[in-house]
Amino acid sequence: MKAKKIMYAISAVTQFTYKFNKENNTNIENTEEILDGSPFVTVDFKDTPFQLIFTYTYELGRIQYRLEKEEEFLPLEQYPFPPDENNIR
Is the pTM higher than 0.85? Predict the structure, then answer.
């Protein structure tokens, strides 16, 4: 299942997805794009169980609401970015 949504803090989606995947042993992927000047994120849930999809979307909604007026990404200590696969040696 895939979902596309306009998001304020698209970098936070990448951070949150990486942390969520590590904690829940899931393989959720997200991509970012700008359409008509608005930031959109597409999330591919693949074979993620419904209960985890619900948890993911609920938490992501809370994060986006909190970040709307404050920041564009989450605290790096708690939500690191995934390693850049192009720079792994």
Answer: no
Determine the pLDDT at residue 88. 43
> Residue 25: which region, alpha, beta or left (left: phi > 0; alpha: psi -120 to 50)?
left
Give me the residues paired with residue 29 across strands.
44
Q: What are phi and psi of 30, to 5 degrees?
A: -135, 145
Among 75, 64, 82, CA closest to 19: 82
- Are the C-beta atoms of 30 and 13 separated by less than 8 Å? yes
Q: Which residues of 75-84 are buried (b: 16+ CB within 10 A; e: fewer)?
A: eeeebeeeee
